[in-house]
Design brief:
two-stranded parallel sheet; 5% strand; elongated
Length: 79
């Protein structure tokens, strides 16, 4: 089974978004809200980072490592 093909290059969009410091920082700010919420309510937060299964190495390079690093710096477990 193959994902639906269309004219929108989602992978290209994702790569550009994670290269943009402004966009990435906005994303990190949003992710930080989950951390603040979990601490405020004394709830353990464990984050699952999903790669693209058809290209795990690209996913690690483009976004997984950056997101994992952010959560690690904040002492949040990731899977």
């Amino acid at each position: 089974m193959k994902p639906e093909q269309n004219s929108f290059d989602y992978i290209g969009f994702l790569k550009n978004a994670y290269k943009s410091e402004e966009i990435f920082n906005n994303h990190i700010e949003d992710l930080g809200k989950f951390i603040k919420f979990s601490k405020k309510h004394n709830v353990e937060l464990i984050v699952i980072i999903y790669p693209f299964l058809n290209d795990v190495q690209m996913s690690k390079k483009v976004y997984c490592k950056k997101i994992e690093s952010f959560f690690r710096q904040n002492k949040i477990s990731t899977i």
